[in-house]
Amino acid sequence: MFDRLKEDIRSVFHRDPAARNTFEVLTNYPGLHALLLHRLAHWLWNLGLKWLARTISTISRWLTGIEIHPGATIGRRFFIDHGMGVVIGETTVIGDDVTLYQGVTLGGTSWNKGKRHPTLGNGVVVGAGAKILGPFEVGDGAKVGSNSVVTKAVPEGATVVGIPGRVIVKSVSEDDARRREMEERMGFDAYGVTDEMPDPVARAVRSLLDHMHAVDERIENMCKALHKLDSEYRNGELPPLDDKDFDCVRDDVGDSESGRA
């Protein structure tokens, strides 16, 4: 019991640079208080003392602002930073070394009995305000950006952002150093979406426009070559484009560039 408590305290020091000493962590970290009370409630829940377990869970919510159903299964070195507004549903399964920030919901999308809530693998990080809804798996080492809404499985090592959540980084085969470098480049932030974080849809549109520009240049070169071979070759006119149709794309690109600047 005390070994697990020491392990939990060490995990706080490892993941929160604001932690100064053990006494401060024990007395002023609601995430740790909620975890300790949950372990008691979960033990009573498994003994069949459902009402008492739910009562302890309710008291824990009053004291910490964190609601963890006593039926939820939580692994070792679990850490909730700040914690206010965190909700963890009954059939949630959480692996080891998982970190949640404030406002996270691990919820369900069905009123049916059985598995309704997500399963988080080892080392998962869920940013502030994110919602993970449904009975699917979030792979080991995955990261969910702040305020994202995730409703389907997340691959191991991936980074997910947006509403609905989209995978912007897949790094299953990469080592930890390369993974961290990629996350910094893509702008993963547990607290908020930074100016550097690309919108996946806007990025896809820009990629398509770049590809179309390259294709246009290649076709233009082919037409010039055909004209040299046959002076009578007539290059047909392309249909005109309305500049108004591209205003939103220009605005999006301009905003992205000004954000990087």
UniProtKB/TrEMBL annotation:
InterPro entries: Hexapep (IPR001451), LbH_SAT (IPR045304), Ser_AcTrfase_N_sf (IPR042122), Ser_O-AcTrfase (IPR005881), Serine_acetyltransferase (IPR053376), Trimer_LpxA-like_sf (IPR011004). GO terms for cellular component: cytoplasm. It comes from the Bacteria. CDD domains: LbH_SAT (cd03354). Its EC number is 2.3.1.30. The keyword rRNA-binding does not apply. One of its GO terms (molecular function) is serine O-acetyltransferase activity. Keywords: Acyltransferase, Amino-acid biosynthesis, Cytoplasm, Repeat, Transferase. Coiled coil: none annotated. One of its GO terms (biological process) is cysteine biosynthetic process from serine. It catalyses: L-serine + acetyl-CoA = O-acetyl-L-serine + CoA. Residues 233-261 are annotated as: Disordered. It is an enzyme of class 2 (transferase). Its main location: cytoplasm. It is found in: Cytoplasm. This is Serine acetyltransferase. It comes from Marinobacter zhejiangensis.
